[in-house]
Design brief:
Layout (H helix, E strand, L loop, with lengths): L1 E5 L5 E4 L5 E6 L4 H30 L6 E4 L2 E4 H8 L2 H6 L2 H15 L5 E5 L6 E3 L4 E5 L7 H13 L8 H10 L3 H10 L2 H4 L4
Parallel strand pairs: 1-3, 6-8
Antiparallel strand pairs: 2-3, 4-5, 7-8
The structure holds zinc ion.
């Protein structure tokens, strides 16, 4: 843990995405107060580090310099570049898969939808608004197909509940009884959204 004493009023504990832990403390704060603070934050710290280590482990299985990933499968990047000129074109050539899955679930469960667009958000796998418009991230194509289905159904359930309330998760569970496992997995792959792949 890196401890920084600085001119500040409160203690601040940070865990960075690379697993580094930084504690910022007011210059004259007694050690006893620092120790008490750390004890109170121990659970949070353990959980945060566990999550970050999981992400780092998943991340270490990818080599974005050598491979391009589609549906959790990998393809030689040089060959993809030869054929598609850039990685984004390769993903764009596969957009239909996403659109077809959207159409499939829309018809199967009679969901309301006015428009679906594919975007490159660094924050979300998908969004759904009150105008019944769905946005899906192009990077969904990197994921396993059952995770893509989870993301699409999650967004469709927002056509009934715009929030993440209990009622919302009940809607999701009606369609995907084991949604909790998929939800966690999707969260574990969240780093892909911020990865510069194209
Ligand atoms: Zn949501």
């Amino acid at each position: 843990m890196k401890i920084i004493k600085q001119n500040r009023k409160s203690i601040c504990l940070q865990v960075k995405n690379n697993g580094e832990v930084i504690l910022k403390v007011p210059i004259n704060l007694p050690q006893k107060n620092i120790d008490e603070f750390l004890v109170s934050k121990q659970n949070w710290l353990d959980k945060s580090l566990k999550r970050i280590n999981q992400t780092l482990e998943i991340k270490s299985k990818y080599d974005f310099n050598k491979y391009v990933y589609l549906f959790d499968d990998n393809f030689n990047k040089d060959e993809i570049l030869k054929k598609y000129k850039n990685v984004k074109n390769f993903y764009k050539a596969n957009i239909n898969y996403l659109l077809e899955r959207v159409e499939f679930f829309k018809n199967k469960y009679n969901f309301n939808l006015t428009k679906v667009t594919i975007n490159n958000s660094v924050r979300n796998w998908g969004t759904f608004n009150s105008k019944f418009e769905m946005k899906l991230n192009l990077k969904c194509l990197i994921l396993k197909k059952d995770l893509i289905d989870y993301i699409i159904i999650h967004e469709f359930c927002h056509s009934k509940q715009l929030n993440h309330s209990k009622l919302f998760w009940q809607e999701v569970m009606r369609i995907i009884p084991n949604y909790k496992i998929l939800k966690k997995e999707v969260r574990d792959f969240g780093f892909l959204l911020r990865e510069n792949l194209y």
